[in-house]
Amino acid sequence: MEKVLKPMSGYLALVICLVLFAGAIYFFISGVEQSITYVIISMLCFLLFCFFMKGLMIIQPNHSRVLNFFGRYVGTVKDNGLFFINPLYSSQKMSLRSENLQGQTLKVNDKMGNPIEIAVVMVWKVGDTYKAAFDVERYSDFVRMQSEAAVRHLAMSFPYDNLEDDHAPITLREGGDKINSILEQELTDRLAKAGIVIQEARISHLAYASEIAGAMLQRQQATAIVAARTKIVEGAVGMVDLALKKLSEENIVELDDERKAAMVSNLMVVLCGEKAATPILNAGTLYN
């Protein structure tokens, strides 16, 4: 478990280091001119200077240091500034900044077995430095591999759209925020063991694979045409019915079944045709 440390300020230790370094120079120069004892004192001052300097560390904003003492985890320093720690501690730098990961485009099969191309972009950062440093080998590689596994699992759990599965509650193409929420939860569960916090995850690319893209496009176009034709026919039938009712209610003209059939035929052609109909004047009667 992560343990946050509050080390002492390093400014006093920095002053001591400067004094030791100046003393080492002074006694070295004096020893050359006077006695070997001053040279020994100079060497001791220089060794103490190196020892204290090893305990000084500067931590930049949104960075941290993970401290170990001969293989034992001591704690993590997350404050920024100049600090002094036990010079025998070993430290590991770790960034706490948010990072972007643009995943590569993967070719996988959706729930219905159709090959699709999918890619995600996510924003993540280190939340638990202990887990990131000691529970996984290299947390950045772990994030990359587990994010790819999460995307593959997401793609295989839902259909691309509802063309083949009309009863699918969620599809990859129309899921929107629900799909993104499921993806974020999947990534959070997988990366929790490495102490990684997922701030945002979104699908950045989604398409049918190239080998079936043409066929699926034709299918979508055919579906759209059928849906449009259905609406046109429903509207035309309603207009014809309204026209017959109006003619009958207002006694404009009496139509027998044959004339009604002819009128319905003409109106359906005019209303459902893709091009404007060309009118033809009938100078006689319907029976001549």
Automatic annotation (TrEMBL):
<protein>
    <submittedName>
        <fullName>SPFH domain-containing protein</fullName>
    </submittedName>
</protein>
<dbReference type="InterPro" id="IPR001107">
    <property type="entry name" value="Band_7"/>
</dbReference>
<keyword id="KW-1133">Transmembrane helix</keyword>
<feature type="transmembrane region" description="Helical">
    <location>
        <begin position="12"/>
        <end position="29"/>
    </location>
</feature>
<keyword id="KW-0472">Membrane</keyword>
<feature type="transmembrane region" description="Helical">
    <location>
        <begin position="35"/>
        <end position="59"/>
    </location>
</feature>
<dbReference type="Pfam" id="PF01145">
    <property type="entry name" value="Band_7"/>
</dbReference>
<feature type="domain" description="Band 7">
    <location>
        <begin position="54"/>
        <end position="220"/>
    </location>
</feature>
<keyword id="KW-0812">Transmembrane</keyword>
<dbReference type="InterPro" id="IPR036013">
    <property type="entry name" value="Band_7/SPFH_dom_sf"/>
</dbReference>
